[in-house]
Specification:
homodimer, UDP-N-acetylmuramoyl-L-alanine:D-glutamate ligase, 41% helix
């Protein structure tokens, strides 16, 4: 089983409005409400891959009840801990030209007692678990060391962890020694305090250096997701890798990053070697970017990307040569 | 008891964002979620007035559960009929300058069977009821004659009705002979197919003519709400009246119209003469406009407005002279 932790899930509401009146009354022609949050997307994708997954996290209020009802309809196994606060909403307005405005509510305040209740259930679930995924932001009230604590607990139970977060939670979490950390370019740039891309694209040498810094800080392996440029991996046991999709798919970037995490966790749980793990990750990321909704993916794109993705070792030298 | 019918309630969500990025990511500094819909606002106001009120209507899905939970917290007595569809949301973004964009979802599709279930409970509730309020839009699936049917049922039970809606539902509803119809200026203009105001303000003669047309169509009395210019009434038993607040209060226009309906229904139920009924209506409208949330009102403003509002007969001649 793979345990996916989502401490700050959301109800994602999208309104499609052909022409938005930003100072008046709008009547959306289509309304969509779906459960979201990065960990929840990872769990949905693992469930769609037929992996044995359990979503754990915190849920509260009426919005939380909506998230749980939607998860139930999707059939994603979940063991969520009830909190007094209200699970957050995100609200996106998309116009006819595809331009989008996102309004993201802060998460609920979480008490020490509520987190302790979650943590007790999490520790129980670790028995017999092949991998743990810790993904997304922390709600207000939880310390930046929260993911580090959960990684320590997993390590004590012999369970490897995959971490995907940002800021201080990423800094503390990486230091706790997760098996894999999956930053994107913006997160690596924030940690390096400088840009890692130039007008020609990603600066692979600089990304590699930033990833090595995360390894040096404690991460077992680091897989950087670089959007349409694919993945760059610095592994502990198998050297450096690059994985690129054969084609660029316009679509949902959030979903793609979460799909990469799902594939990495799945590969870790079933013991795929790094080249195959990265091939699946880049293909699933591409297939997810091609789907309109985070947490869903195109199976046809997944299969075709698996056979056409380029995965190669020692990417910086390869890039310099070719 | 006063029965208030709200067939299309809503969960009203408001995000306060100091400076909105209409093409990017926004993090609201304040988030508010409240039960709404015009009938629901009327019921809240009647409850705040200590009137014996029962809110009836249709409710569905997770958003509906949110509306019911919030109503329970407010203590408003409600007997809502469950439907399969999802109760609608409205979403308002308010920026630091007070500019607002509203996104209003369509209501749920209502089946014949669901409406029949509601109607059965409504007819039972009419026994011993002093007045019925029918307020707001109709959700998809309900015929424009729906309010007319409900007014007919009330009439058969000897219960007077107050109607506040627009478009075809107003046309059909007025023809069914409600005791009072409360259009606003925009609704009267839509029925008259012409503007009823000029740059100097409301054209009272034209409003009077439009109100008389609604009376001729079947309404017992017509009270037009004219925003800061107060009320203009054409009654069946007491002639023509005008009621004006002594001061203009900037604020919530939606809430003000619903408060006027609440006061008119209350006055009808307890038998207030027209001058007092209109005095309370204009004062409560002013007090509600002064409150930040529809359905709430400032008690201090209500009391002071009661003593300072101007209520006089034959308003067109008065206006022409003075």
């Amino acid at each position: 089983m793979i345990v996916v932790v989502c401490l700050n899930p959301a109800l994602d509401v999208t309104h499609h409005v052909p022409t938005v009146d930003w100072a008046g009354v709008n009547r959306p022609v289509a309304v969509r409400a779906r459960p979201g949050g990065k960990g929840l997307n990872v769990a949905r994708t693992l469930h769609a891959l037929d992996a044995d997954v359990l979503l754990m996290g915190l849920i509260g209020g009426i919005t939380g009840a909506g998230v749980q009802a939607a998860l139930g309809a999707l059939g994603v196994p979940a063991a969520l801990t009830a909190i007094a606060g209200e699970t957050r909403r995100t609200f996106t307005v998309v116009d006819g030209a595809g331009s989008a405005a996102l309004f993201s509510e802060p998460g609920p305040q979480v008490s020490d007692g509520e987190f302790a209740a979650f943590r007790g259930r999490y520790e129980q679930a670790l028995t017999g678990t092949a991998a743990v995924v810790l993904s997304g932001s922390l709600p207000p009230g939880l310390a930046a060391t929260t993911y580090a604590e959960l990684i320590d607990a997993a390590s004590a139970a012999g369970v490897p962890a995959v971490l995907d977060t940002h800021g201080d939670a990423l800094v503390h979490g990486a230091a706790a020694g997760p098996a894999i950390v999956k930053p994107n370019l913006a997160e690596l740039e924030a940690m390096a305090a400088r840009r890692l891309a130039n007008p020609d694209g990603v600066d692979a040498m600089a990304v590699m250096a930033a990833a090595e810094n995360l390894r040096a800080a404690g991460a077992g392996s680091v897989v950087a997701s670089l959007g349409p440029e694919g993945l760059l991996a610095v592994t502990g046991d198998s050297g450096r890798w690059r994985a690129r999709p054969s084609t660029t798919v316009a679509g949902n970037g959030t979903g793609a990053g979460d799909a990469v995490v799902a594939a990495l966790a799945h590969g870790l749980a079933i013991g795929r070697p790094w080249d195959e793990r990265l091939r699946h990750a880049v293909a699933l990321g591409t297939a997810c970017a091609a789907a309109p909704v985070a947490g869903e993916y195109s199976h046809a794109v997944y299969l075709s990307s698996l056979s056409t993705a380029a995965v190669y070792r020692d990417p910086v030298r390869t890039q310099e040569v070719g």
